[in-house]
Each structure stands twice: as C-alpha cells, then as structure tokens.
Write a structure and sequence with these properties.
Length: about 150
C-alpha cells in the first residue's frame, strides 16, 4: 500500500522533477535540463512505498496568495490508471481551498496527459505549439474552487 505525504523537502521535489524529465526525454529526445531551482514555496505531494521509498508525485508552489501552480507531475506506469493521480489532484485541490487560493494552474504537453485534467474539473484556457517541438501542443489548464471538485 502506498502512502501519500506533503513534503517541503527539496530532495522530494527534485526526485519528481528528474523522473518527469527522464519521461519527457524518452518521448521527445534530448532536452537541455538544468538542476531544479530551490524555492521556499515549493511543496511535493509525494507517493511513497510502505518502506518510504519515493515512487512519484506532484510538485507545486504558491505563486501568489490566490494561485497554486503545478510545476511537475509524474507517476510511474505501475501507478497510472489506478486512481493515484486522482488522489493526488484531490489533495492539491484541498490545499488550494485550505490556502484560500482562487485557482490552480498548470500546463501539460500533448505527449503527457492532457485528457486527464478535464476529467478532474480543470478547464482548458489556452493551447499552443510546444516551443522547439512543433509536433506537440502545450495545453494550459485552470481549476477554481468555486467550480466544485470536478470529479
């Protein structure tokens, strides 16, 4: 059974960041990726094994008093399609409400999971070609607590 925790440790955010970029590289080829910049406002909703080993998660930050921004979200194939992503997004939404944020924003590329977010109540706000990768599209989404849970 996996455990889910909210962490403010840089190492946990860096784990998710590195795993996501490994995944992205496997889909689009080489990317110039620097180290994750440490930010005090960064938090990670971390999925861990029973022994505490990180398995995946979501990195977010409070961009302003009114906005949470999802920077990175990655789960291993073994945790996809079994409701773990839904659990993580539900935790994020509860955090947004707890912090009195008026929106949660994120973007995802067409080779990632753009179909997941509308199912979770996020609305598409913009689409544009992925910079340097014209075969792909970036989709920008927002969720507002006033819209309800959405799932």
């Amino acid at each position: 059974m996996e455990n889910i925790v909210i962490s403010d440790r840089y190492e946990d955010a860096d784990f998710v960041y590195r795993k996501l970029f490994d995944y992205n590289i496997s889909k689009v080829g080489p990317l110039a990726v620097g180290p994750l910049k440490k930010k005090e406002s960064m938090k990670t909703i971390l999925v861990c094994s029973e022994t505490g080993t990180p398995l995946g998660g979501m990195v977010y930050e409070q961009k302003s008093p009114e906005e949470l921004y999802v920077a990175y979200f990655w789960l291993p194939e073994s945790l996809r399609g079994h409701g773990m992503g839904v659990k993580i997004v539900d935790i994020l939404k509860k955090e947004a409400v707890r912090l009195h944020c008026r929106k949660v924003s994120l973007y995802t590329s067409s080779f990632q999971a753009p179909g997941f977010y509308p199912k979770m109540g996020f609305r598409l706000t913009k689409q544009e070609p992925t910079p340097n990768y014209p075969a792909y599209t970036d989709s920008y989404f927002e969720w507002n607590p006033e819209d309800g849970n959405g799932n």
